[in-house]
Amino acid sequence: xxxxxxxxxxxxxxHRAVLVVTGKxxxxxxxxxxxxVAEWVAQPPLRAIVAGVSPAxxxxxxEGAVYVTLRx
Length: 72
Description:
The chain is 29% helix and 24% strand.
């Protein structure tokens, strides 16, 4: 619910991309939240506003964050 609210709000404000900090997980692996982001944005209502998800650059959080590109 928090991700949906955040992304819908960012889209409404006209943002084209956002950084979503997911954390690395308790064991330094992929993390459950990071692994689920792609699945969550593929479901309604986010499917209509999300163009893609990609790994964040190291200086932006690396394995603990993703970029979400939003549609116009």
